[in-house]
Structures are given as C-alpha cells and as structure tokens.
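Troubleshooting: if your tokenizer reports a length mismatch, compare against these two reference records.
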Amino acid sequence: MVSRSYSNLLDLTSCGSPSFGREKKRLPRVATVAGVLSELDDETSNSVGSDTPSSVSQERMIIVGNQLPLRAHRKDNGTWEFTWDEDSLLLQLKDGLGDDVENVYIGCLKEEIEPSEQDDVAQYLLDNFKCVPTFLPPELFTKFYHGFCKQHLWPLFHYMLPLSPDLGGRFDRSLWQAYVSVNKIFADKVMEVISPDDDFVWVHDYHLMVLPTFLRKRFNRVRLGFFLHSPFPSSEIYRTLPVRDELLRALLNSDLIGFHTFDYARHFLSCCSRMLGISYQSKRGYIGLEYYGRTVSIKILPVGIHIGQLQSVMSHPETENKVAELKNQFRDQTVLLGVDDMDIFKGISLKLLAMEQLLLQHPDKRGRVVLVQIANPARGRGKDVQEVQSETYATVKRINDTFGRPGYTPVVLIDTPLQSYERIAYYVIAECCLVTAVRDGMNLIPYEYIICRQGNEKIDEILGTDPLTQKRSMLVVSEFIGCSPSLSGAIRVNPWNIDAVAEAMDSALMVPEAEKQMRHEKHYRYVSTHDVAYWARSFLQDLERACRDHLRRRCWGIGFGLGFRVIALDPNFRKLSVEHIVSAYKRTKHRAILLDYDGTMVQPGSMSTTPNAEAVSLLNSLCKDTKNCVFIVSGRERKTLTEWFSSCERMGIAAEHGYFVRTNQNAEWEACVAVSDFEWKQIAEPVMQLYTETTDGSNIETKESALVWNYEYADRDFGSCQAKELFDHLESVLANEPVSVKSSPNIVEVKPQGVSKGIVAERLLLTMQQKGVTPDFVLCIGDDRSDEDMFGVIMNARASLSPVAEVFPCTVGQKPSKAKYYLEDTSEILRMLQGLVNASELPTRISSLPSH
C-alpha cells in the first residue's frame, strides 16, 4: 500500500538517468502519518499511529537488511553505476510477495560513497530502484560489522565462546554501543518512508536484532516481521552474552520471528523462558509467546533457492562450454564437490582430512576420485581466517604430495572467485556434494546442487546422458546445518568424526544407480516446491495473520531504552480512575467489596507477606461504614488469615480460594462446598512426594482442603516439564475422585470440585439479596488467574444487582483479563482504597460540625 510520505518523495523527482550534479533533494525526516502524532522525540515517544484504516489498496513491504541487493561500480568518468544483485536473497524473495506488493529496500551499499555524493546517490537509488541506502561512517561500520557482529554475535551464535582473547575476544561495550547506534540509524531510514498503518516491515538477520524496538517505540502498531538466517544457540551458550536480555526483548517487539529449523526456534523459546520467564503456547499448529498482551508468533521454515535463476544460468552458452571443458578435464574420474566460505565454521579442513582418510583406507580410489573444493572468500577477517587458510593450503599440499601422480591431483582447491556459470558447471559434473560445516544457519549449496544435477536437454547432450533417464545425485551433509532436516535422502554425518565422514564418502560412491535416482527424485521434489518464493509467500501470510488484530487493540508503550515494550489490550480495558470510583461510591448505599490478598494488598515477591499497618487500617475503616460488606478472598489457610486480620472484626474472610468462609470475626467458619472426606489426599500426596524428590527446588504445601505442588524455585524448564507430567499423573490416579487438578504458574493444585473464588462472590451477592439488600456497588480486585472467576461472576450477575449498579472488576497490572479495569500495583490500590475511606468519613465529619 503506497505510503503517503513515499508518494510525496516520488513526486519530487523524475525517473530519468542519474545526474549527480542536480540540485539535492533530501528525504523527509519522518513520514507523514494519518492520525495524531505525539511525542516524536525518541526518548519520550510512546505511540504514533492511526486507528483509521488506510484507503490505499496496494500493499507495500519494506525489506530491511544489512546490505542492499545492489552492485555498485564507479565508471571511468567518476560516476556511479548501479545494478541489481541477482544473487541477493532480499531481491529474490520478491517473487513470493506477488505483483500487487510494492517492495522498498533499506540497507548499506557494499562500496563506500563519499559524503558529498551521498544525497544524490540516495535520491537516484530511491527513484530507480526503490532502495534507501544507509550510509555509515567507516569507523562506526567497522565497530558494528567487523566488531560486534563478527567478533561477538557470529561466533556465539555458532557455539564458540570467547574463552580466550583469540576466540572472539572479550565483550566490548563500545562495540555494543556501535551496534545499537547503527540499528538506530536503520530505524531512522525506515521512518523516512514508512506508512505505519499500511506497510509491512521485514527485518533480516542478526545485524539488526534491536531494530524492532526502535520501530515499535515510534509506531506501536507497526506490522513487523524478523527472520534470523543464522543458528540460534542453546540457552547455555546464549546466556553468556552480557546483553542477552536486551536482544531477546528487542526481538519480542516483532510480530513474527522466523527461524530455519525447529532446533533454532526451540533454543530461542527456551531462552525466553529461562531468562525472561515467558512461556510459549502452541495452538492449532501455531507457536506464540504472550508478551504484555501481544502475541509474538514463531515461524519455522527453511529458506529456499531461486530455481529460475539457476536454470537460466544453466542455459547460457558459457555454462555449456564450461561443462564440456570440465567433463574432459575429469574424464575417467569421479568428482566429489565442496563449496564453502573460507571460515572456521565451514569444516573445510575436516572434509580434507576425510578425503585423506578415504584414500588411505581405500587404495582403489586413488587416481579415480577427485575432491574439488571451491573456497569462497571469507566474509569476516582476522586471525582465525588466516589460520583456516594456512591449514587448508597445508592439508591440500600434503594430500597431493602423498597421493598425487602425473595426470592425477586428488584435491583441486579453487580459492579464486568464480563466476556463477563456472560454479554451476562444477555442480553439474559432480557425482556427490559434500557439506561438512560444524555449524551453519542454513547452507543452500545442497539445494543448488540438486537443481543443477537435474540439468536440461543441452547439458544432457554434453554429458552424453539419455534425457529420458532419471537423474541422479548424492549428498553427504553435516547434521549441524539448517538444511539437513529437509534432506531426508542425504547421508548425514558428524563432521568431527573423520572416519565416519570418509566412510560416508565411500558409501555415496558405492550406492546403486537406482538408489541414487530415488534419492535425487525425493530431494528434487522438495527443493523445487519449497523455493525462495514459497518461503517469502508463507512468511508474509503468517505476518498478515499475526498483525490482523492490531487496529482492534489499544496500544501504548512503557519502559526506557531497549527495555521498551508495547502493552496491547482490549479497547474496553482501561485504568481505574480514583475520581470515577469515588464518585460512584458516594452515590451508592449497598456496597460489596472483594479483595484478593497476595499480589493485591501486598506486593508480589515481598520478603514479608504479613499485612502492614496501613492496609489493616484501611480495611477497618471500610468495614466501619455500615453500607459496606468487605471480604478478603485468599488462597491462604484460614488459621493464617485469622491471625493476620484479628483486628478487623467486621470483615469477612474467604480462605483456601473460597473453600472456607467466615462473614465476620464472631461467625463460625463454613465450608462453601460439601466434601464428605479427604481420602483422595492419601492418593495424591505420595505422587506429589515422588515428583518433589526428583525435582530440586520444589515443595508440597498441605492445606486443609487442598494439596499444592510448588516449583517456583526449581529449574524453570525442568520444573515446567515435571509439572506437566505431574498434572497428567494426578488426573489419571484421581479420575474417580471428586476433585479437580489445576495448573497455574509455578504450581499444580488438587482441590475439591467446585471450589473457586467465584463461589465467594456468588455467595456474598446472594446473601445480601436474601437480606433484602440489593447491591448497587461492587468492587472486586485481584492479580492472578484464580481471581478471574470472581471477575466473571460479578460481571454476569445483573440479576442479583441493582439495575443502576456500578461494577468495578479490577486486575493488578496491565495484562489480558476478564476485568474491565486495572491498577498498576499495590500502592495504587491502597491509594484508591484511601479515597473510598475518605468518602466514607466525610459525611461523619460534616455531621459532627456544630450548627450555627
């Protein structure tokens, strides 16, 4: 959908040939947005965006990556020439977005542009390529890319810890600050062109992991997806990163987060659980994280390749000539092929050692089998790259010196850049492709190999194969790369096991032709149907689904810096105004007040759980007003509550979530639910004891009416796993008992059927009605899931209330709830109760004044 701000930019310029001597035309600092813009300063901004749907019909995708999908070349006359980089994934994915989606690209150029030329280049790229370049000062780019990205994130995400200065280096705060600064610059570029209510934003890879926070801070309802193209490490590795929480929270400001494999997604979810206390839920095939009222969706889908581009290059005469040349070069020899970047994670040296082992153990392969290793230039730089190069050259030399002879070179190392047609020609003539990376996010080399082995009529003619015969191919792939799970016909290996890799290479050569054809057919069917267009289309569909409720929700931001997040709640959910409730309180005469205790009258996590003097005083003052009927409704035992509130003579107490009720201090305790016996405890307690013994940090809380297994202090993942097992176990052994098994955060509880806080609310309203008193004011405050039953009862109890009754269901904190209102914390609750007390005492003070 065309942005109004972007349309204005296009109006400024024509799409003619570049003329860098023309008058400079700068992009606007911030987009024009329909609706109200408020607090645009980055440090104070909480929400910008319209609730009004756009009238423009065409969708637009803003694709943000570290590099633009462009090639730049300075011509002899000093001017720049730009062309599309057909190999760029960011360019290829447009095929899956549809012709009705306009694509705008934001990223850096590979070449450095002089500051004096940047404005003209930016305008030209916007006009002709719909690209918005991000120009970074060289020093900042070095700290950002070669510093934080390549020294910290890249090694860590590939499971390499900085145990010594040589292994990635210690954490450098200045590099982190550079990373944040660059992400902020990218955010500014997005803001120049975005129409936040209309556009989708798709951010790519680990270079821009905090960008979602900057965008969400400026536009609370931005429709934002993020895809990580590298592995995501296990929590034991990731937790070593000093800025671990900041990166996790930044990613959670996306609407959809994509990963290549379930393992990567599982590690991310485990990190969110262990470090942020956020658990995921799976519903109807979709995985989601509830984050401050927003559902952050998780997408698991490996990226594909652009098949049409490969097939097009295969049809070029240069490719056909190269295939013929290579066929002649390696006649009477079987070619094994490796194509890897020259970095420490690609396992080139392990592959060479396996080749050496193959020739040692199978002398018959000497002179007949050749390993062609294409070594692409490393993307990073540093000592580790130099070491990989030195080791590779030394190993190749040793193997060739040992096993080579005139007319036979066992290992052919190609370390100079190849044209696309040359690489494809090697794919075509290779009998087997080897990928022995020790860790890789995806690796599309096997996919490209499969498509190239399918060939075409001209290639078949050159190779001398029958076009009607099924094609064949073999793959030996590392089990540590992202594409491995999707290649079910490949021989999977542990690249660290040199002997096993050598045997896999031998097996691949010995596989019968029919089986090679079957494996190839299986792989070709998958790769051809799961191309890059399929991947992009699927991601966009899930992003649309994840964002469909944006305009229906009320959103506002909280937090500072990278701790910023957006609260998204139902439009009818709002903060309880003290003035509003006091006004209603004054107008009414028959009031019911139900208050939870833990987390409501005392702060959650407090060292002391006993009520303070202020809370007790407020409760006593409310009870003194004869128009009020006040109840504390708690999950605690009645003995404890009796001791704590001994001074509140007129206050009602409900203990153990409503099983026991006492209307005032002089009344007897009553059971709300009739229970004939508690013999079920003799069944449940031994089961809980078993799980307590095997779960360090857990304990059993025995109540008169219930048993509670608490795992708050256990390992989060293990405790959660044990809780699920215990829940199923208890439901099984107690299937014929009159009890219910409930699971809540950190606890599994067994209690008599029908016991809930909602019973207390029902009983109170019914009792008041039986006494001829129709409640016209109901206040109910609670903080957790057990209090939702009370909210539900009072909101559906119109038959028991006055037609003009004022009902105030109120939860603690901004979160999804049945309640219509919220207060932030205990201090606000006490302040509100003080307002009610003041309203009760005011008539008394007025009546006590002397008359004149």
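Reference record two:
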Amino acid sequence: MADGECLPAMDLMRSEPMQLARVIIPMESAHRAISYLGELGLFQFKDLNKDKSPFQRTYATQIKRCGEMARKIRFFRDQMNKAGVTSTKLTYGSVMTLDDLEAKLGELEAELLEMNANSEKLQHAYNELVEYRLVLKKMGEVFNSAQKKATIQHREQEHRRVEGSIDSPLLLEQEMTTDSSKQVKLGYVSGLVPRDKSIAFERILFRATRGNVFLKQDPVGEPVVDPVSGQKVEKNVFIVFHSGERAKSKVLKICDAFGANRYPFTDDAGKQHQMITEVNGKLAELKTTIDVGQHHLVSVLQSISLQFEQWKTMVKKEKSIYHTLNMLSFDVTKKCLVAEGWCPVFATNQIQKTLMQASTDSNSQIGAIFEILHTKEAPPTYFCTNKFTASFQEIVNAYGVAKYQEANPGVYTIVTFPFLFAVMFGDWGHGICLFLATLILILREKTYSSQKLGDIMEMAFGGRYVIIMMSIFSIYTGVIYNECFSVPFEIFGPSAYACRDPSCRDATTIGLIKVRETYPFGVDPIWHGTRSELPFLNSLKMKMSILLGVAQMNLGIILSYFNATFFRNEIDIWYQFVPQMIFLNSLFGYLSLLIIVKWCTGSKADLYHVMIYMFLSPMDDLDDNQLFLGQKYLQLLLLFLALIAVPWMLIPKPFLLKKQHEERHRGEAYVPLGALDDNLGPDSTPRSHGGHEEFEFSEVLVHQLIHTIEFVLGSVSNTASYLRLWALSLAHSELSKVFYEKVLILAWGYNSVVILIIGIIVFIFATVGVLLVMESLSAFLHALRLHWVEFQNKFYQGDGYRFYPFSFALMGDDEE
C-alpha cells in the first residue's frame, strides 16, 4: 500500500487500532482473494505452517515454476543489457495467464539460446579466419624475404664460379653438383602465441629439442580476438622449423601447452595467394552472417523489452501470492483455506468488500468468511504516514519500533529534531545553501525516485524532507544568532549601541552607550567582532542549551504520564511520573528558573555558586547571589522534595506490584475436583494449578533500583549532555569565522585577481566540504543522540514490531 492511501485521518500520536482476524476462503477463489488483498495492502498474514519445510508445503511446485520464470526474466535482462536495449515502463500487449507466460518465456529463451550458440560458433570461426589470415600474410612475407636472399646468394656464387676467382672455395663446384635427393627437408609449424608467453615459449622449445629447431616470431600490431576465450590478446605470429617426426611431436605438444593456435601454411607463393583470397571471401561471408544474426537478436530483444516490465511484475506477484498461500492451512474438509493475520480496524469493511469481489470474480458459490478473533498476543504497530512524515518516523524506528499504541515520539520529532539540529548549525547563509540543494531533490523527486542513485545520494534523497526542515530551522536560528557565513547584518535596523566619542573606534564594548531601543530580534550585530563577543555568546548559548534540555526532558516525562493514563496504570502515574517530575524540576527546573530570572533582572549572581552551595551548605545566606526574596527557603524546600522523590520512586512500586499480582490471581489456586484429578499426573506442579507465572519480587525490586539510579544519575548526565548544543554551535560559528577571515578576507587584501579567485575557490570548497557536509552530519548525529537517549528514555519502550502487510506496492526491486 502506498503512503497516504489510508482512509482514516492521519494520527501519529498512537498507532492504528489493530485486530486479529481469521479468513476462511474457498479453494476456487483463494488465488484471486490473496491477489486482491495484495492490491489492497492492509492484511498481514501469519504463518500457520511453521512446522513444515518449504518443500512440504502445498504450493511448493508453483513457487518453483515462478522461480524458474524469474530466472528466465533475469536472463532476458542480462541479454538486453549486453545488447544495449532498455526496457520501457509502458506495457504492451494483452494480459496473459501464468501458463501462457511460462510457455512464452520458454520459447523466447530457447530462441535466444540458439541464436547465442550460433553467434558464438560464427564468431569463433571468424576469429580463427582472422588469425589464419595474419599467419598467411606474416609468414608469406618471411618466406618471400628468405627466397629473395637465397636467390641473391645463389647469383653471387654463380658469378664467382664463372670468374674462377682464387678466393672461391675449393669445394664449391662439388657442393653445386650434389644430388638434390640427398638434401635434408625441414618441416615447419606455424600459428599465433600470446605475446606475454612468447619468451617462455622460445626457451622451452630450445630446451626440449636441444636447440635443433629454428623459431621465427613476428609481433602483430594490434590485439587479436582469441577464438577460445573471446578476449582481445596481444599475440605474435611464429613459425618453427624442425627436422624429423620426433621433433615435430615435441613442438606440437609445446604449442598446445602454451595455448598457441596452429594454422597450416605452404611455401608455395601461388597457393599462398590463393589461400589468402579464399580466407578473405569466407571472412566477408561470415561478417555478413554475423551482422544479420545480431540484427535479428536485437529485434527479438526489443520486442521482449516492450513487455519485460509487465512480465517481471506478473511473475513477482504470482510468486508472492503462492508464498502467502503456503502460509495458509487447510480446514478439515480440505475444501477451504484458513488464514489468520492482523489488520487495522478501519480496514474491516475494505477487506470484506475485497473478499466478496474475489468470490464474485471467481464465480464461487460460497463466499469467504471474515471473523474477528480475540487474543492476548501483542498486535503489530502501524502508523499511517505520508512521504513527509515517513522519514521522521524512520528516525524513531531506527531506535526501536513503538510498542502497540504507546505514545509516538515521531510526532514531536518533526519539530524538535530539526530545531535542535538548527541550534548547532545556526547560520542563515549555510541554511539557505542547504535549503536550495534540498529543494532540487524535492522538485525533481519523481525523476530521482525512478533512478538508481548512489548510496550517499540515496540516503540524502530519502531524508529530503528532514533536511529541508533542518535548513528552514537553521535559517531561523541563524537570524537569531545574526550570522550569515559568520558575518552579522543589521536586518531589523541599526544597532542599539554607538560610540560615546570617536576614541572608541576599536572593537570593544567599552565606551559604547545605548542610543536606541533594544535590537528587536536576535543578537545585536555590534557584539560581533568585540573582545567580549565570545564570553557573551558562550554564556547565552550555554544557558539556552540548559533551558532547551530541561524543557525536552520534561516533555518526555509528561508523555510517560499520557502513556500511563492511556494504559490505565495508576502505579506508574503516582510512583513514577510524580516523583520524576519533582526530582527533575527541584534541581534543573530550579536552575532554569534562575537563568530566566537573571536574564530578566540583569543580576550578577553566580549561578554556579548558587547550585553548588545549595547542596553543600543549604543553610548559609546567599548574600550577593540572591535573586529574589525567599530564595533560601525555596531552595531548602526543593532540596527536601528532591531527597523525598528518590525513595518515592524506589520503594512503594515493587510492593504495590506484588499486591496487585496477588489480587489479580486470588482464587485461581482453587480448581474443580475433576480438573485437579486431571492435573495429578507425574508432571503436575503447584505452579500449574494457578495457571500463571510466578511473581519474582526480588527481580522487580532490583529492576526498580536500577531504574531509579538510572533516572537520578541520568538527570544530571542528560542535562550536561544538552551542552553539546552550545559546543557545536560555537564550533560551527568559529569555523565559519576562520574560513571567512583567514581565507576570503586575506585573499582580498592582496589586491591580486589570481589570489582572489584562488581564495574564493578555497572558501567555497571549505564551506561546502567542511561546514555544509561534515558539520551538518555531525550536528545530525548529535541531534539523533539527544532524541534517542535524553528524550526517548523518559517514556519510550520501543519493544514493538512493525506491521508488514502483504502488499504488491511494498515488493522490492531486488531479485532473489
């Protein structure tokens, strides 16, 4: 089911009410009913055949058929990719049955395999003829060169014999008159050998024949397609002259060992010319045949591509239908299939209409029966989201899926997550850059959703709505901080302060007087660049971080109250929510109050001193650190309440749970005599009479002790953890300031166009790479931690499991 197709109004606070249902479907309409439910996508089937292996189930044969068809479709896809043919999303042709599709796919596969086999044979023959032509040309040149040299040498000898020169050899005449029948005839073997093996080939030939061969090699200029491997290989044409059959057999074995392709050759020049002519003719014929075959193959693949997506979707749907049918069980008559599963309550009428439509379309005389089952099993969690809220919900689900109908942090995460990110990333210049980059992803989401992006781009595209919210909030906090690439702007008017006289030209607050109304929104721009800028902004952001942290932790505890109220758990309200609220606000709620009072009154009280001596010396007078009347007595009261809240959380709850357990199971130990007699078997125990689990008081007490210690210590550590908002905001601001002043302004000061251009390029790359990518990722991870640990641990259990309905829309693109 696609996002946003739910009928009820979207409510993310609690998961949709779910129900366990049983569906009894007649055999003749089972396939169509499951198919229609897959189109609806609102029913999660339970596996009622867990004790059976996949091969023992009813529809194992059909799944095997679908798997074989999926293999053929993958074969078609590989062939299309190899030929450069792309499939179209449009579907052509009429819808066929599964049997017709199976026959069609079988015919097409056989045709493609036959064409591939013929093409391979033709290509093999073509490559062999190409190599043969090279041998004929190269070796023909070798023989022609040798014959020319022999003719010239013979003429020189004849000339010397006629002149009777004293330098002529004494046995020349005898050599010339020797009987030609007594001359030794040399045999030869020719072919091609890979160039990287040619040296070893020559060496082995020399050693095996003890140097009684003559090897001549000539490198081929361009790589040659090897007939055996089909890969382009650099080769040498060779010819080996040998004497005798024994030497010939050794040469042939060595050629085979080195993968040398041997081809026949003749030393007759006339026959060589004739053979080259024949080879060229055959090559032309084979080339024409191969081109025609390739054209036919492409035409077949193009016809397949028109229906490829339709066939692929059909096979995937059929396979998923039979997988689902295998999860159903037969009734006792073997005429109906029984299904059990979860569905939202709002989908009851839709499911019943779908089952009725399936029975009608199947011409079934008996309709399917839909009934609600009562169970104590925990239902799955289902939130009806759209493309905007889905990414925020995934942030929560990555921590843990919400327990059925517990309060969902995803509602608040939509606002709090981008806001806490923006507190750390506050710069409206960087925010605008991030906004524009994400806006492109949103405007072109239809294009990108149908494409395969890289891993990083896929993540960015999936969280595009989270990122654009983060950028919007970053612009807002950047305006508050009054920073645009670390540069302040007088957006809402001039500064409230001015120099008392011309002598205060240097950047300092000394000598400044207030001449106008307070700057209306955000930080006054005159603070930037002063010596007191860092102490002022540090104090502001640190206190702001504590206020935000205490507010969010209070929200988490308040949500635990709504959880306890919803599940009617009075014990959690009075012995968990109340003492936690008292403890947290007695300490850090009071600190937040002091921060606000100090801001409003302009007091110079030391809040560190106030909080430390609130514990060390609660009875001492506050003196200069007193912010309001009665502060000392209020501190004593809050300290007393904080001390009382710890045993309040720890002690009563385990005893109350034990009492509640005893009252719930009171009387269950008494059973009828007949039932008691049945239980008097060898395996009967007193525990089995009660029919309930034992209450382990020690385990509950230890669990409550751990929970109390975790909350008390966590209140301190979690509050301190929110100071990361201040630290990362400061780091982002200072880095931005360094890049602006030490790169851009420094390059501007050289009065050189080249240096200025280099400075601008470095500034752009540093801003994008460090501030927009690395800093945004860092702020994202810290905001994630604040939500998962500091916020959600106050109320969120996250031990549920997701609702995975049987839906064709949720089928992945991954092939099995």
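Descriptive notes for reference record two:
- The chain has a mean pLDDT of 87.
- The longest helix spans residues 98-163.
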